[in-house]
Task: structure prediction
Amino acid sequence: MITRRDFLKMAGTASVVGALKPDFAFADVMNTFSEVNKLPRWRGFNLLDFFSPVKRGPNDWNASLTTENDFKWMADWGFDFVRIPMAYPSYLQFDPKGDPNKRITKEEVLQFDESAIERVDHLITKANQHGLHVSLNLHRAPGFCINAGFHEPYNLWRDKEAQEALYAHWEMWAKRYKGISSKLLSFDLLNEPCAPVDMNDQHTQKPPVDGAIYRQVAEGCLRVIKEQNQSRLVVADGNGGGSFVVPELTDLPLAQSCRGYYPHYISHYRASWVWKNPDDSPAVEWPGVINGETFNREVLQAFYKPWLDLAKSGVGVHCGECGCYRETPHDVFLRWFEDQLSIFTEHQIGYALWNFRGDFGILDSNRKDVKYKDWYGHQLDEKMLQLLQKY
Result:
């Protein structure tokens, strides 16, 4: 079995799985998997081990997070991909010491915590051992997150200092994993870019970020990543919170990642981080009329057409997040999700469910209208699993 120490020794010379096989050119990832899409149709899940900016101590790393069995089940069920959305404070020395309102300083933004980073090593190693490709993503980057609840010391889209800090983070990860093959590990630069009017208001307006600024930031990240490994596969999330193709990036060596949350009425029905008052969330149906708008498969197809066209143009496309919050009626969710997955599959676009175990997941989702199957002490949503396996 490969240990974390083995993992780090092999970085720089070989891949973790398939010991000492040479890396391959970037073009080898972005070629001939499909005439429709230049990325593999990876299918899997988001893992939330490093999602929270609240620092976890050694005693907090318990069975509620990703386990060996989780990876085994994913692989046994036919999945081959995990995305790890990380909040950067989760791997820093910064520690609020029980005070969630403690503000991080600019100096602390670059104080990496080796012990926490080793836990990321461990997660990647385990995923790779089970044949799962890993997408490493910054869900919260210095100066930006689509979610409020953690006070940033600057603004990524306005402040050069914040941008330089982001580059330093990606340089650190790129150096650490420089020899790990892109068949096993890719980098997803920044989760769901947008320009929140008020960074500290969860319900503020979040329009797309200026495309030229997004390109500038993406180019800075690419520079430090490619200096370590020219063939590293790098992905950029769609603008406007992942919804929209980014034309400003299409000539760069980047794949792009969409979202499977349209319409949000269904995917985020009664979700408190979307609706100030969950009771304001309109009743949902699929297909049908929601809040005065008609939704069906044709509407979905039209919404995703720019992404389908992007894939046809030669830019790799993957759906980095998709799924439904637990409050959405299960039958509505499954009908909607099948239409979405069928569209992705027809165009050879893979996906990652948010999440594996939890409110959006196939295990322990706590939905009130599902007859679960006991699965080694967990509650398995068999209908949902069967739908995912179908596509």
Q: What stands out?
A: Residues 1-33 have pLDDT under 50 and may be disordered.
